[in-house]
Amino acid sequence: MNNSNRPVRLHWMEDYKYLFKVVLVGNAGVGKTCLVRKFTQGIFPPGQSATIGVDFMIKTVKVGNDKIKLQIWDTAGQERFRSITQSYYRSAHAIVLVYDVSCQPSFDCLPEWLGEIESYANRRVLKILVGNKVDKGDEREVPERIGTDFSDVNHFDYFLETSALDATNVDQLFEQVATRLTNDMKVTDERVHQYRADATNSSANSSGPIKLIDRAQTQLNSCCSSRQ
Ligand SMILES: Nc1nc2c(ncn2[C@@H]2O[C@H](COP(=O)(O)OP(=O)(O)OP(=O)(O)O)[C@@H](O)[C@H]2O)c(=O)[nH]1
């Protein structure tokens, strides 16, 4: 995660540790808005209309003892909004790519969405694949195994099937996102502290403290860019 994508570290008076941006993408009608509203408001909205451009909602979750704020961006799946939604990829810490298990064409479009992610998102973004509408048992067109295989082959960090209608795995989806991002961030923070401590100790015996800190940062960047 580069500096521009580091989560906002919040002042102590705001009692949460990190704020992460999560962006949902996928074909129109796969259920992105319903997933977000189920998680943030606990409702399945009747007659949900298509999203225009982008919308966002916020929810705070607990990861261990830490409060984590998720800023969840719900993008429009319709092609005509594509240029607007692309601009939201860059600052995302996690991208949730959603298809509808009862709609084969929404699964067939996944490579196109992956192309968008590769073109516009940070290359270390957390990638989650979601097959929604599992409540539509008899109407299923995409077997779970096919979703798992696609996730593995394309190096997603996590795959699960959900239902915004009956709440299957909805909380789990966003809790996984929060947990994984928090854990990644803590590892990065520990490395930064360690390198800074090493650089400070070394500089006590050296005439070039600035260079040592620069070198530590370079090492950190190269070791942190190995994800994916
Ligand atoms: N059976 C079932 N229907 C769902 C589920 N999630 C969403 N729907 C329905 O699918 C339709 C589309 O849902 P939305 O949440 O608007 O889909 P979207 O992906 O946000 O669509 P866009 O905003 O156009 O990109 C609505 O009629 C919902 O009621 C689900 O888990 N199960």
Automatic annotation (TrEMBL):
<keyword id="KW-0378">Hydrolase</keyword>
<keyword id="KW-0968">Cytoplasmic vesicle</keyword>
<dbReference type="InterPro" id="IPR027417">
    <property type="entry name" value="P-loop_NTPase"/>
</dbReference>
<comment type="function">
    <text>The small GTPases Rab are key regulators of intracellular membrane trafficking, from the formation of transport vesicles to their fusion with membranes. Rabs cycle between an inactive GDP-bound form and an active GTP-bound form that is able to recruit to membranes different sets of downstream effectors directly responsible for vesicle formation, movement, tethering and fusion. RAB30 is required for maintaining the structural integrity of the Golgi apparatus, possibly by mediating interactions with cytoplasmic scaffolding proteins.</text>
</comment>
<keyword id="KW-0963">Cytoplasm</keyword>
<dbReference type="InterPro" id="IPR001806">
    <property type="entry name" value="Small_GTPase"/>
</dbReference>
<dbReference type="GO" id="GO:0005764">
    <property type="term" value="C:lysosome"/>
</dbReference>
<keyword id="KW-0472">Membrane</keyword>
<dbReference type="InterPro" id="IPR005225">
    <property type="entry name" value="Small_GTP-bd"/>
</dbReference>
<keyword id="KW-0449">Lipoprotein</keyword>
<keyword id="KW-0488">Methylation</keyword>
<dbReference type="GO" id="GO:0005525">
    <property type="term" value="F:GTP binding"/>
</dbReference>
<dbReference type="GO" id="GO:0003925">
    <property type="term" value="F:G protein activity"/>
</dbReference>
<keyword id="KW-0342">GTP-binding</keyword>
<keyword id="KW-0547">Nucleotide-binding</keyword>
<dbReference type="GO" id="GO:0000421">
    <property type="term" value="C:autophagosome membrane"/>
</dbReference>
<keyword id="KW-0636">Prenylation</keyword>
<dbReference type="GO" id="GO:0032482">
    <property type="term" value="P:Rab protein signal transduction"/>
</dbReference>
<dbReference type="Pfam" id="PF00071">
    <property type="entry name" value="Ras"/>
</dbReference>
<comment type="similarity">
    <text>Belongs to the small GTPase superfamily. Rab family.</text>
</comment>
<dbReference type="InterPro" id="IPR050227">
    <property type="entry name" value="Rab"/>
</dbReference>
<dbReference type="GO" id="GO:0005794">
    <property type="term" value="C:Golgi apparatus"/>
</dbReference>
<keyword id="KW-0460">Magnesium</keyword>
<keyword id="KW-0458">Lysosome</keyword>
<protein>
    <recommendedName>
        <fullName>Ras-related protein Rab-30</fullName>
        <ecNumber>3.6.5.2</ecNumber>
    </recommendedName>
</protein>
<dbReference type="InterPro" id="IPR041820">
    <property type="entry name" value="Rab30"/>
</dbReference>
<keyword id="KW-0333">Golgi apparatus</keyword>
<dbReference type="GO" id="GO:0046872">
    <property type="term" value="F:metal ion binding"/>
</dbReference>
<dbReference type="GO" id="GO:0031410">
    <property type="term" value="C:cytoplasmic vesicle"/>
</dbReference>
<keyword id="KW-0479">Metal-binding</keyword>
